[in-house]
Amino acid sequence: MDKQTFLLWAERNARRIGVKKGQVIKAFEKEMMAQAGSDAPFEIPDTMHVNMRYSYGGQSRFFREILENKRLMGTRCGTCGKVFCPPRSHCPVCYEQTAWIELKGTGKLLSYTTVYFATSSYIKRVPYIVAYIKLDGADTAILSNVEMKDIKKAQVGMEVKVMFRKQRDGRITDIYFKEAQ
Amino acid sequence: MRKVGIVGIGTTQFRSRWIEKTYFELAFDAVKSALADAGITRDRIDCVVYGIYNDFFERQFQPDLFVHDYLGMAPKPAIRVSTGGATGGSAISAGFAQIASGLYDVCLVAGVEKSADCFDYETGKSSPEVLKAISYTADMTYEQPTGRTAAGSFALTTIAHREKYGNPTELQMAKVSVKNHTNALLNPVAQSPIALTVDDVMKSPMIAYPFKRYDNCLYSEGSAVLILASEDVARTLKKPPVWIKGIGAALDWAVIGNRQDLYSFESSRIAAKKAYTMAGIHDPVEEIDLAELHDAFTGTELIAYEDCFFCNEGAGGRLIDEGVVMRDGKLPVNVSGGLIGCGHAVGATGIMQANEIVMHLRDEAGRRQIKNAKTGLVQSIGGPGAAWTVCLVLERDEK
Ligand SMILES: [Zn+2]
Fold it and tell me: Which pTM value belongs to this model?
């Protein structure tokens, strides 16, 4: 491929997959400009992408209460009394419908990890802490991010409290946790 | 239930990238060598089980359809199995059922995976985009958006284990990494044969605390295939069959916060126990000659010693300290190099592990042969926090 054809090819493909033209040029320059034999492996820029409009179904109230009222909810099984957070519409043991209850938002770290190498969607955020938190009053643990000044001070058993982000979108990442004072 | 034997095996090289092959071409190579190994042609295959994990990796939903086409297996019946890292083990288990039930006599079990076609244009690297494709296996409502990675899910268990028992220590994990990278030096299909030192591992960059770069396996591209047959057919083929004596499987809570405890993998304990009961194994360290355990991370191999009942809970670290699991130890673990040394071509991994055991039980493992190996264990785990486990006990033919 001559340079002019390659640059036009890179521009079309960058638009097609939603990345910068320069990034396609960088990734393919060597391969596409080389005088490769006709049997040399041939790669193309590509993507798989599907847009959605996702319904939270019976879990909806959990996300709406966070978004609109900064309230952290769980669900309780009326038969066995177990409290679930993340919430479940049904108890997996009794198979009965659960009822919504409000949680205080304090809890303890059951375990954690600090992520230093992440997926392409999160790589700019590293390092960050991901932890299982058992909320006071709940019987299950929720996975969330813990934000602290010195991330090396995270430890199992640490007491934390829920925080609500200023800008909330109706996603689980609308909440995170901080060390309780 | 009928006896089921492994009568043919084939494994391609595990590489970080097979730019010159598509996933169906890779599968073809491994199938061709498995058929040759069994001394049969494709006409003898009654049914197929495909082990392929991630549709993004292959850039194809239901990639089994197109492997089947490429192999010229139409119109034989086939199913595809996908259970994360345990896909290979689950595919063998599904194939076992086809033969044991009496439904078919010869079953091809074909595992294959590409991954490095995933590419992150921003960093100019594959791995962040590979991790993104994997991340969709986590619970999308409550867990995936937190940015927890696959390594992160196993790191959480390792930290919880360390909190309860004081191990695995950084040094014990480094020793496992050195063992598996070194074992891979003798394996011609391995991706990461490296003569490492404990110091190299300890000084490698942190990936997900407490795992460092060399505590992790690398993603591989490759294919591994085996052929299963009923006893009647197996006895007529050219090589002595290796029998599947025990199979155990479990799928634990995948939202890990629903589990009772975070410090061990309950699915692995259940699967190992079931497989041992079926195979009549009472004392695994005495009765098993070698094991291929799912060492996606060094910490998980150490926990697997406990989950497979090689020792009591909390004592896993001792087995590496005392050399029990070294290739010259009482129960060598991951002589192939495991996922860390040989590689992790997800859908093919469990089958690669089984093929390794088969080679030892047939005395075909060359320079890395474990002498007089009669019984081997395969542990195949996958999903968030090892939600899935499949364990297989394989035995040499005594006739
Ligand atoms: Zn209940």
Answer: 0.97
